[in-house]
Specification:
Strand content: 15-25%
Radius of gyration: 22 Å
Largest sheet: 7 strands, parallel
CATH architecture of the largest domain: 3-Layer(aba) Sandwich
Number of strands: 17
CATH class of the largest domain: Alpha Beta
Strand order of the largest sheet: 3-2-1-6-8-9-10
Structural class: alpha/beta
């Protein structure tokens, strides 16, 4: 990492108060950079709270909008624009790193307002959306201001290309692999156990696909147990399970990061049956680092992370029968299961922040060579046109 210590401004588009993949990525990146001696500030929608890290600056409360099959909590408008400009003006940053600058939130405002070295990271993988294409003529000149563009996966890169006809370098999401390598296998989670972790009430997380596979699995693996970790209404989920099989499904509730490491070290298989809307799949990298043998749907983002099946088994997305077959085959073949887990554990190192952080910083260096210090545009009224207030 370069000897010169930088002042880096990172902009988060989504509410810091609500956990999510983009927020976690920004948190880990900020702490990686701070650990390496750089000054980092993160501007994010957030309530004013003593719980905010020292490096996070609140730009105000977010509002909720539907986005990519979920609800995004973002911040946009006249007041937000003023706060963004003040933050840039006072920050004296060497560069800005803007996450999801193509959606209506703080990163887009910062991209409109700033001049100089600016990096954009694109996380979303979404189907071709006419709404985004319709505002393309407004977004494209803004996106072209970026010194460099990063996509967290090939799926995210293709989404960017399809919607805005531009390209990006692929640098994956990062994990601290050591945090998962030291998990302890717990007796209560061992045996013929398959694990699921996530907000299971979200349809795109795919838990119904797994539960629909349970009757088939139980015929061949009578002592099968499904361990579900994460927030949600367990009673509502159990209603779709055969009453005779409900004792095979256990809900662990929300678990800590330490418990997650133990969970991944304990289960025979980790299952990711997501049906879409994923641009990367950070849990797959965590599961591999934790020593779990992974089974995932063959959506493009997951296939990329798992090397098209080299580092984890794939099944046909939304096909419960195919999922059941893959699970049964692996639970019956311990050698194959252990080989898959071992290959995944090695592959997980590719996503460690020691490598991912250095790759991002190399992009920073190139951007700084190309540009000058970050400043405000003298006049920028594009955002008012999008709001219909010009």
């Amino acid at each position: 990492m370069m000897d010169r210590k930088l002042r880096i401004g990172i902009v988060c588009p989504y509410s810091w108060d609500v956990p999510g993949g983009v927020q976690n990525h920004i948190r880990d990146l900020a702490e990686f950079l701070i650990h390496n001696g750089h000054h980092v500030e993160v501007l994010a929608p957030a309530t004013e709270s003593e719980d905010l890290p020292d490096y996070v600056v609140s730009a105000g409360r977010s509002v909720s909008i539907p986005y990519n099959g979920a609800v995004a909590r973002v911040l946009f408008g006249v007041v937000a624009n003023s706060r963004v400009r003040s933050w840039i003006n006072e920050g004296n940053f060497d560069l800005l790193h803007l996450h999801e600058p193509a959606i209506p939130s703080l990163s887009l405002l910062a991209c409109w307002a700033g001049e100089g070295p600016m990096i954009g990271t694109f996380h979303a993988a979404a189907k071709y959306q006419k709404a985004i294409v319709a505002i393309g003529p407004i977004l494209e000149p803004v996106i072209e201001k970026l010194s460099a563009r990063i996509a967290v996966s090939e799926s995210a890169r293709l989404t960017l290309t399809a919607h805005l006809e531009t390209d990006a370098i692929v640098i994956p999401n990062g994990i601290y692999a050591d945090n998962y390598r030291d998990g302890t296998s717990r007796p209560e989670w061992q045996g013929n156990t398959i694990g699921f972790l996530g907000r299971f009430e979200e349809d795109r997380k795919g838990l119904p696909v797994l539960l629909d596979a349970l009757p088939i699995i139980s015929r061949f693996i009578p002592d099968i147990r499904v361990l579900i970790a994460g927030p949600g209404d367990s009673e509502e989920v159990l209603e779709r399970v055969d009453p005779q099989l409900r004792n095979r499904v256990e809900f662990l509730g929300k678990i800590s990061e330490e418990d997650k490491a133990d969970f991944l070290a304990s289960v025979s298989l980790y299952i990711a049956p997501n049906t879409g809307g994923e641009s990367f799949g950070i849990i797959l990298a965590e599961a591999m680092a934790g020593g779990a043998a992974v089974v995932a749907s063959d959506i493009p983002a997951f296939a990329d992370v798992l090397g098209d099946g080299k580092y984890g088994a794939l099944f046909e997305s939304e096909n419960s029968e195919n999922l059941a077959k893959v699970i049964i085959d692996l639970l019956r073949d311990e050698r194959k299961r252990k080989e898959l887990a071992a290959a995944g554990a090695v592959h997980a190192q590719r996503f460690d922040w020691s490598q991912v952080g250095e790759e991002i910083f190399e992009v920073y260096q190139l951007a700084i060579v190309k540009g000058q210090k970050v400043s405000l545009t003298s006049e920028n009224r594009s955002w008012t046109r999008l709001l219909g207030r010009d």
